Amino acid sequence: MAPKVDDATMASVPSGSPAGASSTVVSPNDVVDVTVHPLVLLSAADHYHRVARGTRKRAVGVLLGTVSRGRVDATNSFAVPFEEDSKNPAVFYLDHNYLENMLHMFRKINAKERVVGFYSTGPQIRPNDLRIHALLKRFVPPETPTPPVFVIVDVRPGRESIPTTAYRVVEEVDSTGGGSNTKTTELHSTFAHVPSLIGAEEPEEIGVEHLLRDINDPTVSTVTSLIKAKMSGLSSLTEKLVEMKDYLEAVAEGRMEVNQDVVANMQTILNLLPNLNVDELVKSMLIKTNDMHMVIYLSALIRSVIALHDLVNNKIKYSLDEDEAEASSKKAKADKGEEEKKTEEGDVEKSGGGREKK
């Protein structure tokens, strides 16, 4: 199997809770991670380009797959007719009959695949997503303990990181103390982040490689692709660091509550970052950078010399061809002149011999 690409594993704490409220997660069935396969990405992108490209609409579909010990594998998907009112977010339409018929047909093809969640092209969470999640729970088998997940598939071409963001629905109990004997309790649902992975089995890898053969640009060198990959990784790291900074600022300002799991993950990430203030590390990086720049400079210089050499050779070759063509044309003209001269002399001799006979 191909190596899986891990997304940010920061948990999400819903905003809007009172500063003095105590929040308790009561959902017993946690989702460990969500693995999205290439077929799901291709289907979601095709669905978006057919239905919502060039508009502010989004595409919504159902995810099919398997669940094992809290690990969700989304191996297949299909589109669902979906419309929502842009002016009134509470109004939306989802075709139940179409969904039931498609599930019935997919069970005939592969009985192991079941509903594991739904996807949306987002690119952000909408107010109707919780209602769609509650609606989709009806189609999950009752013996399955893991609830359906929600995956946002970002089809925008400018995205640097992996195009999937996974969520699970958790129920939270907010307890607010108004006085010595007054206490109000409120239960509400919200989305929380789940680690998102991109994985593929061996047949899927072969299919993806065949698709990439038509997209691969042979003019792009290996060094260019490596540099582009490093730039993409650094850009993704910057995006995640900014996200962590925004979370810490929100906690410091009191807009969000402190989550010890999130803080522990941040501390682990920061500990993994290299210390660039060490003199030996800076010196080694400079030496390596200079060596790489020297190789690039020499490669460009050699490429220029070879190009000039080929240009001179072509110039010499074309000049020789032109000289040969000019010489052959002059020789042809001379031969043609001699033939015409011989023809004229023969005509003159014939006309003189005829006069003598008369």
Structure in words:
This protein is an alpha+beta fold. It is 49% helix and 21% strand. The protein has seven helices and twelve strands. The protein has helices at 38-51, 96-109, 129-136, 202-215, 222-253, 260-272, 279-357, and strands spanning 5-6, 22-25, 33-36, 60-68, 71-79, 82-84, 92-94, 114-120, 149-153, 164-177, 183-194, 196-198. Strands 1, 2, 3, 4, 5, 8, 9, 10, 11 and 12 form a ten-stranded mixed β-sheet that branches. A two-stranded antiparallel ribbon has the order 6-7. Strand 6 (82-84) and strand 7 form a beta hairpin. The longest helix has 79 residues, at 279-357. The radius of gyration is 36 Å and the shape is elongated. The model is unreliable at 1-28 (pLDDT under 50).
Could you tell me the number of beta strands? 12
Low-confidence stretches: 1-28
- State the order of secondary-structure elements, H for helix, E for strand: EEEHEEEEHEHEEEEHHHH
- Provide a count of the helices: 7
Query: Proportion of β residues?
Result: 15-25%
Specify the overall morphology. elongated
Give the radius of gyration. Answer: 36 Å
Largest sheet: 10 strands, mixed
Helix content: 40-55%
Mean pLDDT: 81
Structural class: alpha+beta
Q: Distance between the terminal alpha carbons, to the nearest Å?
A: 108 Å
